[in-house]
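Reopening this ticket.

The earlier resolution said the output was attached, but the attachment link was broken on my side. Pasting everything inline this time so it's all in one place.
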Amino acid sequence: MTYQEYNKFCKSLPATTYVVQWGGSHVWKVGGKMFAVGGWNKKDVTGVTFKVSEIAFEMLKDQPGLRPAPYLASRGMKWIQHYDAPGLSDKDLKEYIAESHRIVSLGLTKKLQKELGLNQDGS
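Inline output:
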Protein backbone atom coordinates (compact mmCIF):
# COMPACT_ATOMS: atom_id res chain seq x y z
CA MET A 1 0.00 0.00 0.00
CA THR A 2 1.33 3.42 -0.90
CA TYR A 3 0.71 6.53 1.21
CA GLN A 4 -1.64 7.75 -1.51
CA GLU A 5 -3.66 4.51 -1.23
CA TYR A 6 -3.56 4.75 2.58
CA ASN A 7 -4.92 8.30 2.50
CA LYS A 8 -7.59 7.40 -0.05
CA PHE A 9 -8.74 4.46 2.06
CA CYS A 10 -8.84 6.45 5.32
CA LYS A 11 -10.77 9.22 3.56
CA SER A 12 -13.38 6.66 2.46
CA LEU A 13 -14.25 5.79 6.07
CA PRO A 14 -17.21 7.68 7.58
CA ALA A 15 -16.79 11.04 9.35
CA THR A 16 -13.01 11.25 9.03
CA THR A 17 -10.74 14.27 9.13
CA TYR A 18 -7.14 14.57 8.00
CA VAL A 19 -4.26 16.58 9.41
CA VAL A 20 -0.52 16.62 8.89
CA GLN A 21 1.26 16.52 12.26
CA TRP A 22 4.56 15.55 13.82
CA GLY A 23 6.88 16.44 10.98
CA GLY A 24 4.75 15.31 8.07
CA SER A 25 2.77 12.33 9.34
CA HIS A 26 -0.62 11.66 7.75
CA VAL A 27 -2.96 11.60 10.75
CA TRP A 28 -6.57 10.46 10.34
CA LYS A 29 -9.18 11.14 12.99
CA VAL A 30 -12.80 10.37 13.67
CA GLY A 31 -14.65 12.73 16.00
CA GLY A 32 -11.36 14.47 16.73
CA LYS A 33 -9.71 11.24 17.94
CA MET A 34 -6.81 9.67 16.06
CA PHE A 35 -7.35 6.23 14.52
CA ALA A 36 -4.42 5.97 12.08
CA VAL A 37 -1.03 7.58 11.54
CA GLY A 38 1.04 7.07 8.41
CA GLY A 39 3.88 8.69 6.55
CA TRP A 40 6.71 8.63 9.02
CA ASN A 41 8.53 5.56 7.69
CA LYS A 42 11.59 6.23 5.53
CA LYS A 43 11.75 2.63 4.25
CA ASP A 44 10.08 1.25 1.12
CA VAL A 45 7.28 -0.11 3.31
CA THR A 46 4.40 2.25 4.10
CA GLY A 47 4.51 2.91 7.83
CA VAL A 48 1.10 2.90 9.49
CA THR A 49 0.11 2.92 13.16
CA PHE A 50 -3.39 1.87 14.21
CA LYS A 51 -5.42 0.98 17.30
CA VAL A 52 -6.37 -2.67 17.91
CA SER A 53 -8.29 -4.81 20.36
CA GLU A 54 -6.40 -6.52 23.19
CA ILE A 55 -6.62 -9.86 21.37
CA ALA A 56 -5.33 -8.40 18.08
CA PHE A 57 -2.52 -6.65 19.97
CA GLU A 58 -1.35 -10.00 21.40
CA MET A 59 -1.60 -11.66 17.98
CA LEU A 60 0.21 -8.92 16.04
CA LYS A 61 2.84 -7.51 18.39
CA ASP A 62 5.55 -10.06 17.57
CA GLN A 63 4.84 -10.66 13.88
CA PRO A 64 7.64 -9.76 11.45
CA GLY A 65 7.25 -6.17 10.24
CA LEU A 66 4.90 -5.26 13.11
CA ARG A 67 5.55 -4.05 16.64
CA PRO A 68 3.79 -2.30 19.51
CA ALA A 69 3.69 1.39 18.55
CA PRO A 70 6.70 2.88 20.38
CA TYR A 71 5.07 5.90 22.04
CA LEU A 72 1.47 4.72 22.39
CA ALA A 73 2.01 1.11 23.45
CA SER A 74 4.62 2.15 26.02
CA ARG A 75 1.81 4.01 27.78
CA GLY A 76 -0.41 0.93 27.94
CA MET A 77 -2.44 1.69 24.82
CA LYS A 78 -3.11 -1.06 22.29
CA TRP A 79 -1.61 0.36 19.10
CA ILE A 80 0.37 -1.58 16.49
CA GLN A 81 2.91 -0.14 14.10
CA HIS A 82 3.27 -1.64 10.61
CA TYR A 83 6.86 -0.63 9.82
CA ASP A 84 8.68 -3.23 7.74
CA ALA A 85 8.28 -6.22 5.42
CA PRO A 86 6.63 -8.61 5.46
CA GLY A 87 4.07 -6.91 7.72
CA LEU A 88 0.45 -7.16 6.67
CA SER A 89 -1.04 -7.57 3.22
CA ASP A 90 -2.81 -4.47 1.86
CA LYS A 91 -6.15 -6.22 2.42
CA ASP A 92 -5.36 -7.04 6.06
CA LEU A 93 -3.91 -3.59 6.70
CA LYS A 94 -7.12 -1.99 5.40
CA GLU A 95 -9.19 -4.28 7.63
CA TYR A 96 -7.15 -3.29 10.70
CA ILE A 97 -7.38 0.42 9.83
CA ALA A 98 -11.16 0.09 9.43
CA GLU A 99 -11.37 -1.73 12.76
CA SER A 100 -9.25 1.00 14.38
CA HIS A 101 -11.74 3.55 13.04
CA ARG A 102 -14.61 1.52 14.56
CA ILE A 103 -12.88 1.07 17.94
CA VAL A 104 -12.08 4.78 18.20
CA SER A 105 -15.57 5.82 17.07
CA LEU A 106 -17.14 3.62 19.77
CA GLY A 107 -15.15 5.60 22.34
CA LEU A 108 -16.83 8.85 21.32
CA THR A 109 -19.82 10.13 23.25
CA LYS A 110 -23.17 8.73 22.10
CA LYS A 111 -24.20 12.28 21.22
CA LEU A 112 -21.16 12.80 18.97
CA GLN A 113 -21.59 9.36 17.41
CA LYS A 114 -25.17 10.31 16.53
CA GLU A 115 -24.12 13.73 15.16
CA LEU A 116 -21.53 12.03 12.94
CA GLY A 117 -23.91 9.26 11.89
CA LEU A 118 -21.70 6.54 13.37
CA ASN A 119 -22.61 3.26 15.00
CA GLN A 120 -26.33 3.81 14.60
CA ASP A 121 -26.99 0.20 13.59
CA GLY A 122 -26.34 -1.11 17.10
CA SER A 123 -22.68 -2.05 16.49
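Reporter confirms the inline version is readable. The first strand starts at residue 16 and ends at 21. The helical segments are 3-12, 54-60, 70-73, 90-106, 110-116.
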